[in-house]
Amino acid sequence: MPNTHSSEPVLWARLSWPELQELASKPPHLALWPLGTTEQHGKHLPVDVDIANCWEIALRVSAQTGVPVLPALPFGDSRFWQGWPGTLSLEPETFVQVLLDVAGGLVQTGFTRLLLLNGHVGNMPALAVAEGRLRARHPSLQVRALSWWDVSPRVVEYMYSDSIEVTLRSFHANDGETSVYLTHSPELVRQSLAVDEPTDYQRPVFSYHSRKLTRSGVIGHPSQASLDKGRKIVQFAVDDLADLLRRGFDERDPDDVWDVRPLEL
Fold first, then answer.
1. What's the predicted TM-score (pTM) here?
2. In b/e form, how buried is each residue of 216-232, taking b as 16+ CB within 10 angstroms?
3. Over the chain, what is the mean pLDDT?
4. Fewer C-beta neighbours within 10 Å, C or N terminus of the chain?
């Protein structure tokens, strides 16, 4: 089992193939893959927010648990923000295929558990597809896609405090994301340019592009962000995600409760 008192993260890219093979052969046979995107985050934040915040949390979780971290994927499904300068997007089919291809190498290395740690709201529909396809393609692989801000109720409370209710993309460059970014790259935050949007918003019946929603690229109240708040969010997210992973260290594949024929690919 990984050293649960490690002080340094375990980085997949810094290990040799014999080291990775040996790591995969020992419990908990688990790897962590940070996923995000590269897209605009208002005038006050860089375009790497989603992957940078996710990466920082993944590193700290690895240091606590010894679970190896795959190289971060800085591209995802950012169609909601396409057209804004700086946004780089994959089609969802491409994104899913990348996940399937890379996970195949992880399985061939010997790992049997994978947590897809998401840092971008827009990735979740494609991740749900990838999760199901990975289960079908690799029946012995235990897999889960999870956005880091959904790891526990106390993290949800902070991250969704200024979100738009009943929407998929309910926050963006908001109080929570800005506060977390302040914990690792404060010199890149231009707090004086933060704009709180939208105002007097009512959820429409249908779904529309982001240009119908915000002038600045913000959804939320980044003017309320603070370093102290960011530290609390990161600590809660890291501790709760580390606890979740530890619970999965010994989790076995549950028995079938219904005799259904497995999907054959």
1. 0.94
2. bbbbbbbbbbeeebbeb
3. 93
4. C
